[in-house]
């Protein structure tokens, strides 16, 4: 699971009002190199919730991202390559996503998050 | 009279050369759809069948439009074996990650098979085990440019819906609409302003009613492919947001506007709904 996907996931348990962001418990992180596409990154930048994104990247052991960003940050090639790396090259292979409100753990195995709910959570 | 027209002969030989060149080009051209020999499988995962092929054929038929559409996020709800999302990724390409693919399935085994199928074809998607798009709806709202769905559309008793395993891939409840009717509002929520939805429907699902429901939400629709097999008659329908329809709905006007007429045209293409029950559940 990429951090792009993490940034799009919320806790889906019934009654939870503040289910975003899910806290990452990382047991195994893998890196897979992919070609960079600046246009794609710029489009994704608009959709990313930045605070959740840097917290997630830190939980994955990556601390190079700046705390504060604005659209002009995107003009820096150095920033773009860091953003690219954190967004698309880091994968949570094993671990869990934890609901910020209830503490319920959604397991991540072989890079795949399992968001299925138990009957009493739907 | 028996004389061969030299001009005609040269045209013929030209055609032959062109044909050979085309064959060469075809051999060189990488496949734009998933290949059956590279598909992974599992007894509890729905294998590609007529409905999967029809959906991929519809995407191929609309491929030039899809390429011009320049989607950023594409999603499949209920990816099963991964045949459709793999084919979509092969059609649109992934160079430099200009397109991000997301696929969901309620069956963990299906997600595993999709991963293997995609790996075998050298393409990639973010895979999530979830019910429809549960957990994604909030943050992904208004962001998805293309959604493809081959839903569980086979009419079954209501209690067979959501029992898990391979049954989840076809059991559609009353008129095969139980899961479809849950997917439609989710798709509406996830689709971006320019978003397109491609969905497989069976005649028993009453596709014209589905089109009318989507029209109320501001979508125009068109049948991309209609296919009848011995057992079922399938329509692959494409939906897209239409500002004229949205305007029409707001005005709630009864007059016959142009988009209204277009809609009527689509509806006349669909056979009238009959209370047809599908007894053979294996035919999905």
UniProtKB/TrEMBL annotation, chain A:
GO MF terms held by the record: protein heterodimerization activity
CDD domains on file: Trm112-like (cd21089)
Pfam families listed in its UniProt record: Trm112p
GO terms of biological process kind: rRNA (guanine-N7)-methylation; tRNA methylation
Family: Belongs to the TRM112 family.
SUBUNIT field: Interacts with TRM9.
Xref: PANTHER family: MULTIFUNCTIONAL METHYLTRANSFERASE SUBUNIT TRM112-LIKE PROTEIN, UPF0315 PROTEIN-RELATED
Protein name in the entry: Multifunctional methyltransferase subunit TRM112-like protein
Organism: Acacia crassicarpa
Automatic annotation (TrEMBL), chain B:
Keywords: Methyltransferase, Nucleus, S-adenosyl-L-methionine, Transferase
Main location class: nucleus
GO molecular function, one term: protein methyltransferase activity
Domain named Methyltransferase small: residues: 74-154
Gene Ontology, cellular component aspect: eRF1 methyltransferase complex; nucleus
Superkingdom of origin: Eukaryota
Gene Ontology biological process: methylation
Entry protein name: Methyltransferase small domain-containing protein
């Amino acid at each position: 699971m990429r951090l792009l996907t993490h940034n799009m996931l919320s806790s889906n348990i019934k009654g939870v009002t503040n289910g975003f962001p899910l806290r990452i418990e990382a047991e195994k992180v893998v890196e897979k190199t992919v070609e960079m596409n600046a246009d794609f990154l710029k489009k994704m930048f608009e959709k990313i919730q930045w605070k959740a994104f840097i917290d997630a990247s830190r939980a994955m052991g990556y601390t190079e991202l700046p705390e504060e960003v604005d659209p002009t940050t995107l003009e820096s090639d150095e920033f773009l390559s860091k953003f690219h790396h954190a967004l698309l090259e880091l994968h949570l292979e094993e671990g869990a996503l934890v609901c910020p409100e209830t503490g319920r753990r959604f397991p991540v195995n072989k890079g795949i998050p399992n968001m299925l709910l138990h009957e009493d959570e739907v | 009279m028996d004389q061969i027209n030299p001009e005609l002969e040269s045209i013929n030989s030209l055609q032959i050369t062109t044909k050979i060149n085309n064959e060469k080009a075809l051999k060189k051209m990488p496949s734009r759809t998933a290949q059956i020999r590279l598909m992974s499988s599992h007894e509890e995962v729905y294998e590609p069948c007529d409905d999967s092929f029809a959906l991929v054929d519809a995407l191929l038929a609309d491929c030039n439009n899809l390429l011009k559409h320049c989607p950023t996020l594409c999603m499949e709800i209920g990816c099963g074996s991964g045949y459709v999302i793999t084919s979509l990724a092969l059609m649109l390409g992934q160079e430099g990650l200009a397109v991000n693919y997301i696929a969901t399935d309620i069956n963990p085994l299906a997600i595993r098979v999709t991963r293997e199928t995609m790996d075998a074809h050298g393409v990639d998607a973010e895979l999530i085990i979830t019910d429809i798009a549960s957990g994604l709806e909030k943050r992904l709202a208004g962001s998805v440019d293309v959604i493809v769905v081959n839903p569980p559309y086979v009419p079954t008793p209501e209690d067979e819906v959501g029992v898990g395993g391979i049954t989840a891939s076809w059991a559609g409840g009353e008129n095969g609409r139980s899961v479809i009717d849950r997917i439609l509002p989710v798709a509406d929520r996830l689709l971006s302003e320019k978003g397109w939805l491609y969905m497989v429907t069976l005649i028993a699902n009453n596709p014209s009613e589905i089109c009318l429901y989507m029209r109320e939400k501001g979508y125009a629709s068109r049948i991309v492919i209609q296919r009848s097999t011995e057992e079922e008659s399938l329509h692959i329908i494409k939906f897209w947001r239409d500002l004229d329809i949205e305007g029409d709905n707001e005005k709630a006007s009864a007059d016959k506007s142009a988009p209204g007429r277009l809609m009527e045209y689509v509806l006349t293409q669909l056979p009238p709904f009959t209370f047809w029950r599908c007894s053979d559940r294996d035919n999905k």
